[in-house]
Amino acid sequence: MSIATKRGDGGETRLAGGIRISKADLRVEAYGTVDELNTFLGFARSICTNQEIRNWTEEIQRSLFRVGSALATPPESRKAPPSITDEDVEALTKLVHQIEATDGILGDWSLPGAHTESAAYEIARTVCRRAERAAVRLTESGVALRPEVLAYLNRLSDVIWLFGRLIEVNAGVDARLRTGETAGPKWSRAWK
Hints:
This protein is mainly α. The protein is built from five helices and two strands, in the order ββααααα.
């Protein structure tokens, strides 16, 4: 059996449960962007020297397969979608609080590119926000998704942003966008 089935040559793909749809469908865009996020996180993990962040990232990557599968499984599918739960979202929230408690963690805008490893996580963060927007478009089109999927993607972008900041703190890198008198309030939300 070959990976080159040729069934997608006409611009259609098969969802979980065997339903065929256009590769341009909002559902495919959403789970495809989650797949893209997973690859960017894999790259960031591959160059990250902090073992704790690497471990957290790998765990998140495994969870993203469930997120992607939840997005790829329509209600009429014979296959039940994997669940993304409140516990999954809460685990990310706890991680946010844990990293926020780090002495010296940046609480304002950051300028991407101050450190190679943190820059890789910044790219992943922007892809995460794009995945979230794709999932929102999917729900706004009338597709029912578990609310935990959107909450998970929203919280995940916070976690990924904090990974970058933690890398910078550990490396002694100052990546603040604004300095001195022009520094903004702690936890400026403009980057969201």
